[in-house]
Amino acid sequence: MGYREVYDTWTADPEGFWMEAARAIDWDRPPSRALFDDNAPFYEWFADARVNTCHNAVDRHVAAGHGARIALIHDSPVTGTVRHISYAELQDQVARLAGVLAARGVGLGDRVVIYMPMVPEAVVAMLACARLGAIHSVVFGGFASHELAVRIDDARPRAIIAGSCGIEPTRTIAYMPLIEGALAEATHQPDFCVIFQRDQCPAELRAGRDIDWAEAVRSAEPAPCVPVDGNHPAYILYTSGTTGQPKGVVRATAGHLVALGWTMKNIYNVDPGEVFWAASDVGWVVGHSYICYAPLIHGNTSVVFEGKPVGTPDAGTFWRVIAEHGVKSFFTAPTAFRAIKREDPEGRLIEAHDISGLRALYLAGERADPDTIEWAQRVMKVPVYDHWWQTETGWTIAGNPVGIEPLPVKIGSPTVPMPGYDVRILDRDGAEVPPGTLGAIAIKLPLPPGTLPGLWNANERFRSAYLSRFAGFYETGDAGMKDEDGYLWIMARTDDVINVAGHRLSTGAMEEVLAGHPDVAECAVVGVADAVKGQLPMGFLCLNKGCTRPHDEIVAECVARVRERIGPVAAFKLAAVVERLPKTRSGKILRATMAKVAEGAEMRVPATIDDPAILDEIRAAIRPLGYGGG
Ligand code: COA
Ligand code: AMP
């Protein structure tokens, strides 16, 4: 069957389609049906099944005789090490860590916050939680204490599992001070912390609270897999929304297993035993789905890469990893390729590596610009497939179903909706627009298995943020169009979320931090185009009347403040003091207009603007930063 037939099979019988896909999973009690819609618009999948994620990702492969197969390859140019972990070793490590947690009371439904760098132990920690039916919430290492505290207070974990440090190319980041800072700020406190000590910067453990991972695991009783209900939350992953309070995206167990299992062959075109590499971070959804869960569920070898596309040690690192480990299918964000292209425009460094075993490159996380795609095609000599998805969906909404049938690539489009997704382009009133017309991208409910059933402790927010604008649809927050061939084109966000180096960030959260500066009366943060990172945040600060302090000082304090409160990942380095902000006559800040001014783009002055002269003031204020055009 080709793509069209497969998609039509799903349309004709969604229930049958997903029950068929469910056959790839080992069930403790098979589902009696796929969709549970009694609580619509809160849909559930395979709710009456009993299943364990860790069993499906690890134990069943060992039981099937594949214990010696490599499950994880830790390739760490920042420490100069490469480590292979077989499925049998992974099973032992996971079962023992689960034993450590279980012995201290962690069980079904308890939350565990994981704050770890890109080491295989991060995957072990996630799987150990899954083994017990505990719900993990991984926090990206580039977030600061405050962001960690916000997540601790929302998830209320019984335990925290952390590494002692992360290693960036230019510095080692001790995690313990960040954890202490978070716990000092949070009202909720965990019962205990398990610390994975790294030689580069061991942490001082606090007696009575902290447990040394290696020591505890050595003497631990391995814990068995605990079957859970199909709709039991597997994890919570916080993502940026429009405010400083992140959204806790929930992933339900059974749908996650079925959907991710389905994607490995149909989208990424790999068979069990082959090497798959997603160069992302376990702190993001790509890391959850494609470093940890999907490759393991499918019986692949997954590469855990601790390094950067450039500078560890050079722009040839990706090629080395692909060649050395025999990667068949590779997934990363376009920003990584822009960084490589800047360092090695001719792609010379690839010549030293034989990447002929690679079948394809997959890009996601942000818009893949044509230049980057064409460069990657030319240098790597493999097909380059853009695909579009979100933390909320956990897997591809639109992509190229290569394992079913490779569709012609249209550069700039992530191709077509996957089975399970009925994607529509809607106008302001919720009416579908004709092909080629821009609109809000919405997905007809129910969303497929593996997507979010709701937000952690915030179902009203789930409803208002995603389900209320268009009745019967999930609002993606992206705008774009469909062409005559049914290809999707993703153009922009419709909210205040920006995408910096493939990282999703909230300008609203940054504005909250800036507004807390004692001299700032009002502010706005917008995303401006950047050649490598896609977008960069830029802040505009209006100071309190009578403030006579040097502007440079205030700007520097604001930059430091965002780094301290949100973290280095915000990459907030551009800010300017302005007299006033451009607003509509009804008082709404014209952020999109400010971004256009900053980028020096051709623009029509909005008819609703209160005073057009402000735009010249803005332009003048950001010229010293190298923005504003001319
Ligand atoms: N822990 C601590 N700090 C981190 C971190 C982590 N896990 N990840 C990033 N940071 C820091 C960086 O060191 C940098 O700090 P600096 O301001 O002191 O230089 C800052 O956060 C910004 O990081 P980043 O935006 O990643 O920029 P970079 O200049 O270090 O690297 C790229 C740029 C493009 C090479 C890099 O962003 C990259 O590899 N991106 C891949 C995209 C990706 O993985 N996306 C995930 C979704 S698929
Ligand atoms: P995240 O939740 O961090 O994965 O970010 C999801 C958002 O990133 C989407 O809503 C889009 O705005 C953007 N995005 C992800 N993949 C793509 C893509 N292939 N093309 C365009 N935008 C993308």
Automatic annotation (TrEMBL):
Keywords: Ligase. The keyword Ligase applies. InterPro entries: ACAS_N, AMP-bd_C, AMP-bd_C_sf, AMP-binding_CS, AMP-dep_synth/lig_dom, ANL_N_sf. Residues 3-57 form the Acetyl-coenzyme A synthetase N-terminal domain. Residues 510-588 form the AMP-binding enzyme C-terminal domain. GO terms for molecular function: propionate-CoA ligase activity. Belongs to the ATP-dependent AMP-binding enzyme family. This is Propionate--CoA ligase. It comes from Oceanicola granulosus (strain ATCC BAA-861 / DSM 15982 / KCTC 12143 / HTCC2516).
